[in-house]
Design a protein that fits this description.
The structure is a single chain. It is built from nine helices and 19 strands. By secondary structure, the protein is an alpha/beta fold. The chain has a single domain, classed as Purple Acid Phosphatase, chain A, domain 2. Helix 4 links the parallel strand 4 (124-126) and strand 5. Helix 6 packs parallel to helix 7. The chain is globular and about 60 Å long. The two termini are 20 Å apart.
Length: 366
């Protein structure tokens, strides 16, 4: 079945031969996202990718405080009425005697590190990923407790599969926003079952059912996926399949993470899909990491415009302080996705507009 879709980024090479099409979209004034509060039926939602506060970051935050990562990026985050990201390491006060998952990288963060999320203004974080159970159920329970203690909601994990697959609702000035989060990375032992705590892992049928249920109980539905290949700029086919199932069944925004780099965005079926927003605040020195912040304007419960703010998250340069860049500096990010969007805007493709303030304005099909 043919669908109307606009894929933004790597448009010439992504999913060659599939049913995804690239169609021009109408223009809209860049002021379409101005304002930082709910007015009538308007809501501004902010999203970032992976947040990993362990490893090198533990000492940095312990010494310099929870506000340390934010001096450059906070003005963008503060424009959102509702802000979320993916929290990719558990909060655990003491790992002594706690069984650690046998894997290449495992992380744990002192519960005091949760203050970093509070300092950034996060309302909710998703937990369905490949590190949240690095220290088993003890780390998961510690994470729930740390977040609950500072009033930050969470989605995507539970004591059973049923609990992990149940949406979390954030109430924001009369708007009910439902969040579902799914982990499509290994180890599979992290996926919750009827008798085992863990993360949600979606089947096609289950995803459709769970999104429909959320849609029946909320005004806006947001679905997050931890998926894809690390450092791949092109999504895998299953990512598109799951994202579109979510939109077809009532999701308004789909946001992905795990690849540690930016992947394309797609307008589809009245919703917006960001296949990967890459890293945000992440305790590693990978020179290949990339990321972006996404600001989405909802009117009457539907996304009507979005801003993609490319960020320098290379910690060899930034030391865990994400930096928004002016367009003249975007080339240092070495992002093929970003270059494709810039080239599309330069070629006059409607719906993709580069703003000199440092973002790409994305507009849906009309």
């Amino acid at each position: 079945m043919k669908t109307t879709a606009t894929i933004l980024g790597l448009m010439a090479v992504i999913w060659s031969g599939t049913q995804a099409g690239v169609h021009p979209v109408s223009t809209m004034p860049e002021s379409s996202l101005t304002g930082n509060s709910v007015r009538g039926d308007t809501l501004i939602v902010g999203a970032v990718g992976d947040i990993m506060l362990g490893s090198w970051l533990i000492d940095v935050i312990g010494t310099l405080g929870p506000d340390y990562p934010y001096p450059d990026v906070l003005p963008i985050l503060q424009r959102a009425d509702l802000l979320f990201g993916n929290l990719e390491a558990p909060f655990l006060a003491d790992t002594t005697g706690v069984e650690r998952m046998e894997k290449t990288y495992t992380f744990a963060v002192p519960p005091a590190g949760a203050a970093v999320l509070k300092a950034g203004g996060f309302n909710i974080v998703t937990l369905a990923n490949n590190h949240i159970l690095d220290y088993g159920i003890a780390g998961l329970i510690g994470t729930w407790a740390a977040l609950d203690s500072i009033g930050i909601q969470h989605a995507g994990t539970g004591r059973t599969s049923n609990e992990a697959h149940t949406h979390t609702t954030v109430e924001m000035d009369g708007n009910r926003v439902a969040f579902l989060a799914y982990n499509h990375t290994f180890p599979a032992q992290f996926w919750a079952t009827g008798r085992r705590a863990g993360t949600a892992h979606a089947s096609d049928e289950g995803l459709a059912r769970e999104v429909r249920r959320a849609d029946s109980e909320a005004d806006i539905v947001i679905v997050a996926f931890h998926w894809g290949g690390e450092l791949l700029e092109t999504p895998r086919e299953y990512q598109q399949i799951l994202a579109r199932i979510a939109i077809d069944n009532g999701a308004d925004l789909v946001v992905g993470h795990h690849p540690h780099t930016l992947q394309p965005l797609e307008w589809y079926g009245g919703g917006l899909i960001a296949y990967s927003l890459g890293n945000f605040i992440f305790g590693s020195y990978s020179p290949s990491a990339g990321g972006a912040a996404l600001i989405v304007k909802f009117v009457d419960d539907s996304p009507v415009a979005a801003e993609l703010h490319p960020l320098d998250v290379n910690n060899l340069r930034r030391e865990f302080r994400p930096l928004p860049l002016e367009p003249s500096m975007w080339s240092i990010l070495e992002s093929g996705v970003l270059k494709a969007m810039v080239d599309s805007a330069a070629a006059g493709h409607e719906g993709v507009q580069v703003d000199r303030k440092g973002f790409i304005l994305l507009l849906p099909p009309q």
